[in-house]
């Protein structure tokens, strides 16, 4: 499954009609990236996924504590979230799109009108967004993990994005004023006394990532070595986020969400390096199954060949006159028939046997009172003309003969009786 990531223009950015995007063939690595008008974005096919990324500057985050009996209700009702956060929002709750996160500890807030306008602009060009994810999110960092500093280029200035398990914070990369110390809320309570020290003193508790163009400034500001992370890499990471802001009025159909979830899980299993050993195990299991089936088929063929050899040997020892064995069962049947004829015995397909079976079969039917007008017998096949049956009587007649190993059918006004085995 291919993945198209579309970065929604920040509300603080002037409208340019250009959409930053990343196209990935495997959902893990960028294949193409750039900016383009909506009509010129890469075309997606059936099974591909389109993910809209909400800029970090467009989001606010709010910690919530919900009683256990309210979790399910909170997941469905935006009205409950509005009531919980009414005193903590800078805008009117009805103007915001509020979404409870997968862990039920955080609520993401974004301007509803701006988000709907951006999505409608894409849909107007035939681009249906399957998921909406935040560029960064607070529970991306687990408790006990190092705080992550991201040096990113914002719409107006370069800035730090500080990701902790309990917050998402922004701070100018090069703040105005003489101080260069880190913001107080970046430090843990145990290190609050280190406010006057260099940020490098916090290195064991920090992971610093920077866009390539900001690497030098980030190293100078933090006093630490930074790792490079392009915006495309950050967006691909966001594409795998457990968050999905497409809820409530922005939600896709349940069937579509389920299908996308299955496709996304399947793609992860097929291509994600974390599942490499599972894929190898699955391939090994399939190969073992194929090997087992081949061994079973070989043993079956060997058993059939052995039985065929035994049957041929039995035919040759029982009937020495048979010099060449072609079809042992048929040749054995023919030899038995020949011996019966030679001994004057009546066989099951001789005329007398077939007539006796017919006489027994017509008992209790209307045909019992009307004997056949003409009888023809040729090589084990008996044809009777003049026997008339109702459909029910003929079915009963055929079933009686079938119990004796004979087949009866109506053909061209005749009743044809022969052995089930030609």
Give a short synopsis of this structure:
The chain is of the alpha+beta class and 422 residues long.
Spell out the blueprint of helices and strands.
Blueprint: E1 3-7, E2 19-24, E3 32-36, E4 49-54, E5 59-63, H1 71-76, H2 78-85, E6 96-100, E7 106-111, H3 112-123, E8 131-134, E9 147-153, E10 158-164, E11 167-172, E12 206-210, H4 215-222, E13 227-228, H5 231-239, H6 254-271, H7 276-318, H8 328-343, H9 351-361, E14 374-378, E15 381-385, H10 391-402, E16 406-411, E17 414-419
Helix pairs in contact: 7-8, 9-10
Feature tags:
Gyrase A, domain 2, 5-stranded mixed sheet, Nucleotidyltransferase, domain 5, 422 residues, elongated, alpha+beta, single chain
Determine and state the CATH class of the largest domain.
Alpha Beta
Largest sheet: 5 strands, mixed
CATH topology of the largest domain: Nucleotidyltransferase, domain 5
The helix tally amounts to: 10
Which parts are unreliable, with pLDDT below 50 for 5 consecutive residues or more?
A: 184-204
Give the domain tally: 3
Radius of gyration: 41 Å
- Class based on secondary structure composition and strand pairing: alpha+beta
Strand order of the largest sheet: 3-2-1-4-8
- Classify the beta-strand content into a percent band: 15-25%
State the order of secondary-structure elements, H for helix, E for strand: EEEEEHHEEHEEEEEHEHHHHHEEHEE
Structure description:
With 422 residues, the chain is an alpha+beta fold. It has three domains: 175 residues, Nucleotidyltransferase, domain 5 (2-Layer Sandwich), CATH 3.30.420; 62 residues; 74 residues, 2-Layer Sandwich (Gyrase A, domain 2), CATH 3.30.1360. It is built from ten helices and 17 strands. It has a five-stranded mixed beta sheet with strand order 3-2-1-4-8, with helices on one face. A five-stranded mixed beta sheet has the order 11-10-9-12-13, with helices on one face. Helix 7 runs parallel beside helix 8 and helix 9 crosses helix 10. The radius of gyration is 41 Å and the shape is elongated. The relative contact order is 0.08. About 5% of the residues have low confidence.
